[in-house]
Amino acid sequence: VTADLESISSAFASIVGGSRVVSETAACAALSVDGKVPRLVVRPASADQVPAILGCAGEHDVAVIACGSGTKLSIGSPPRRYDVALLLDGMNRVWHYEPADLTITVEPGMKLGDFQDHVGRDGLWLPLDPAGGPRASLGGILATNSAGSLRLSYGAPRDMVLGMKIATTEGKLIKTGGRVVKNVVGYDLGKLLVGSYGTLGVIVEASLKLFPLPGQRATFVLPAGTLGIARDLRRRILDSPLQPMRMVLLNGAAVTLVEGGVVLGQGSEEPELWVEMGGSPRVIERSARELEALGKATGVAVRPLEPAAAQAAWSRVSGFRALIGAAFSGAAILKVLLPDAASEEFLSRAEQEAENDKVPLAAFGQMGVGVLHLCVLEPASAVSLAALIKRLRGAAQALGGVLVVEHCHWDIKSRVDVWGTAGDGLAVMSKLKAAWDPKGILAPGRFVGGL
Amino acid sequence: MKPSPLVRELTRLVGRDAVLWRPEDLMLYEYDALSSLAQPQAVVFPTATAHVVSILKLAAREKLPVVARGAGTGLSGGAVVTEGGIVVGFSRMKKILEIDIENRRARVQPGVVNLDLSLAVSDQGYYFAPDPSSQKACTIGGNVAENSGGPHTLAYGVTTNHVLGLEAVLPDGEVIHVGASFWDRPGYDLTGFLVGSEGTLAIVTEIIVRLCRKPEEVKTLLSVFDRVVDATRTVAAITARGITPAALEMMDGFTLRAVEEATHAGYPMDSAAVLLIEVEGLRELAEEHAEQIEAVCRENHAREVRRAQTVEERELLWRGRKNAFGALGRISPNFYVQDGVIPRTRLPEMLEFIEQVGKKYELRIGNIFHAGDGNLHPLLLFDARDKDQSQRVGKAAAEILSKCVEMGGSLTGEHGVGIEKRDLMPLIFSNEDLEMMRKLKAVFNPHGNLNPGKVLPTGRVCGELRVQAAVGELT
Q1: By CB atoms within 10 Å of each CB, which of A18, A72, A229, A243 scores lowest?
Q2: For position A265, what pLDDT does the model report?
Q3: DSSP line for A237-272
């Protein structure tokens, strides 16, 4: 850092007020990223303060990482530098909520759970089950394009954004899109920001599309027995007229984890396919009947979950990170993105690799979406984990996919590139990064290819 | 007449039968569905990505404008040249390269006609969801450039929600591959940024799209109203009930009489407005939604709600809708179609406003639009030979778009900015917003020779709607 802490601190204080600039060790340590601790935490109160903060950071050449609830701060390469944490949790207001139009404009610090409560009163929701669950902030969900298994029927955050306001490190506030549900006016800057992991600009306001809540929901567990049967079931369900809201494949270890049991290797349970249906009683009844028939055809006895228990069970499935965090402090979470049809084959290879290393591996696959999360629960050492990740990445690539390390102890990150390669678009991406953030002060080095 | 050195060079690169250069041939490529401004120097038809690379390298060296073109059905002037240069026509790159049903994906060349892809996977129970009214002619490359919509994008999203990856050539000839056949490849979403960039950032040479499962049941309803306001209120009421129909289209009485005369779809000649509504999905779902929608229509004073009983009846109703622009062409020498968007709850107010504008400027205006997502297509009828009338069309159109913006809406829902609305961009965006767009454009297209004069304001005129060619010479 070129400028001294005190003058930077007072510059920020003149924008947001002294009480919103914090330098206490504990507050800073709470927002550390990959072992790097920021020297200041700045908490803006409103959208118009953010361009000024970023502009000021640019003038002083201090590196900034934006953060909402911090549920996904572990994702990314270690920052090249990190001076200021921009904590957006205080910006959680709702603007322009139009239930009859199914649109809303919100600030990024609002937590998904609070948001769902807000719009749920009108029978609406944002159909996302992202990492971090209800605690995840909307800004963080957008910055990481964090969908979950509901993507199967509703799409990802990128598909739900109507417009946004973005603060830049040149101190500007840029608008893109609008508040109506269909709009092709000008370049779609929002697409660049969604999933940019805070490396281009800071989203300070977003207009989103809302959806009607399904009348009823019902969850069916299909104990598949083998991955081969799981594959057969997935194909039959997706090729049927049924419209599942979400469908998740859990391997044996994942089943044990969700049931709260002790995970010992892979063998304790058999893989299960969880399917959630939504709609009217007649639609649910028909779906149940069809699933039953598909189960019979594959030798699987379908088990409906008690409606009262189903949502809690789903929050354990989509919130698996919390289950792991509690019991396995050294665990690594890997996200594999691949053509959907290769899901089970990849999982079978991954289980074999883990078996060879004698490490328990829990897997949660978003079926029909092509996203698989692998949790390496108890890696023996950094060296063996890094080697396992490389082998798993190789397996993903062989099946036409990629592997991203979403969570691991930061010392692993020096042994393995968390993102993998960016492909031949990297040069354009670097230029886009320079156009948005010419001084390179936003989360420097955290994204793919050192962006 | 002898071919120019440019034409000779192009011929050398892509072959003798792949270059048009005689004035009478070039004339056909002056136009799209908006306008004609200038004639290209040559039209060239690549058959491979390598051809596109060599054409772009030549254009870069000679500092010539390059405009990519699919079927030329665009409505905002995206596929025409503004100052000469080379038109790259994609009518020979129309192969479906790969169909992967288990992954619900297809990989296509940009010249594939939209409907042809759906037909190719129809037997297996799948289709490509974006369905512009021009889908029998328009290409998927054009859909990608314009981020096209269509009646059924209400439930399924526009083109950008259905494109996973692209191969594209930058103006310097560099080929990039963005996105993939799976979601969320790490990196910035260049696919999302290129879709809808109206051919100003790169020329797309390959597209990976999602395919959707055909629904088990489709129900098509025609709801007839004696007052326009009842129809527009019904639209808001359907959304408020938590029903998202697959399509929810509206036509006013004026338009539907013209359509009926041309198509004989069975639309009632004496009504004030009709809603064409489609619900689909599981049999049970479609039936329930159809019943609920019928009830909403009756609560809002629908005179009659008809259900298409057969596939033929359904197709006839849709043919009427999809051929509506042509039907209006029968009763007026010229028409100008708009594409503004408003929050759907404001439809009653907006329709009244459009009627007043029509009266004020003494113009006939037909209304036909994607009511479900608030995407308006007022059609302003006129005779381009009548200078005064043409001027009034320009003014009326600008007033309608300004009202859309005032209501928190947009200038364009699916047709694109192109030449037509570029100088109205400041109604929506600040100088800083536009400056950022310019910077990002320069990342891809630093010398500006790719589709020049589109999307961004030229700065020459302020807040002008470029409908000259369509409505005659406005000065």
Answers
A1: A18
A2: 59
A3: HHTSS---SEEEEE-HHHHHHHTT----SSTTS--E
Sign for the pseudo-dihedral over CA of A179, A185, A191, A197? negative
Q: Which helix (H) or strand (E) holds B264?
A: none
Instruction: Name the residue among B195, B239, B341 with its Cβ closest to that of A183.
Output: B341
- Give the Å distances, CA to CA, from A129 to A134, A245, A432: 8, 11, 30
Phi, psi of B396 (to 5 degrees): -60, -45
pLDDT of residue B35: 72
CB atoms within 10 A of CB B390: 21
CA distance B181 to chain A (A): 7
Q: Residue B320's closest CA among B244, B358, B268, B378?
A: B268
Residue with tokens 């002898």: B2
B246-280 pLDDT, tens digit each: 999 999 999 989 988 888 888 899 999 999 999 99
Average pLDDT, chain B: 93
Q: Is A172 on the interface with B (CB under 8 A)?
A: yes
Q: A174 contacts in B (CB within 8 Å)?
A: 432-433, 436
Burial of A170 (0-12, 13-18, 19+ CB in 10 A): middle
Please give the structure tokens belonging to residue B381: 């009828």
- What is the C-alpha separation between A263 and A269, in angstroms, rounded? 10
Tell me the three state secondary structure of residue B3: coil
Computed from CA positions of residues B87, B88, B92, B97, in that sequence, does the dihedral angle turn out positive or negative? negative
**Taking a C-beta distance cutoff of 8 angstroms, is the pair A133, A113 a contact?**
yes
Query: Using alpha carbons only, what angle is made at residue A172 by residues A169 and A178, rounded to the nearest 5 degrees?
Result: 120
Q: Are A102 and B239 in contact (CB under 8 A)?
A: yes
The token pair at B153 is 């994008």
Half-sphere exposure in the Cβ direction for B429 (13 Å, CA): 30
Joined together, the tokens standing for residue B99 give 């169909």
Strand blocks (E) in A322-383: 332-337, 361-366, 371-376
Place of tokens 């929901």: A217
Tell me the residue type at B158: V
pLDDT at A380 over 90: no
Determine phi and psi for B450, rounding to 5 degrees.
Answer: -90, 120
- pLDDT-wise least confident of A77-86, B158-167, B180-189, B260-269: B260-269
Q: What are the backbone angles phi and psi of residue A317, rounded to the nearest 5°?
A: -70, -50
A281 to chain B, minimum CA–CA distance in Å?
10
Test the A interface: residue of B172, B183, B437 with most A CBs within 10 Å:
B183
Q: List all residues 6 or more positions away from A36 whose beta carbon is below 8 Å from its beta carbon.
A: A78, A79, A81, A82
Length in residues, chain B: 475
Count of Cβ atoms closer than 10 Å to residue A259 Cβ: 12
Contact: A337, B343; criterion CB under 8 Å: no
pLDDT tens profile A164-180: 999 999 999 999 999 99
Nearest-Å Rg of the Cα atoms of chain A is 22
Contacts of B442 in chain A (CB under 8 A): 435
> What percentage of residues in chain A have a pLDDT greater than 90?
91
| CB neighbourhood size of A18 (10 A) | 11
Residue A37 exposed, middle or buried by CB count within 10 Å (0-12, 13-18, 19+): middle
Please indicate if any CB of chain B lies within 8 Å of the CB of A404: yes
Find the largest Cα–Cα distance for chain A. 71
A233 forms bridges with which residues in the sheet? none
Environment class of residue B63 by beta-carbon count within 10 Å: exposed (0-12), middle (13-18) or buried (19+)? exposed
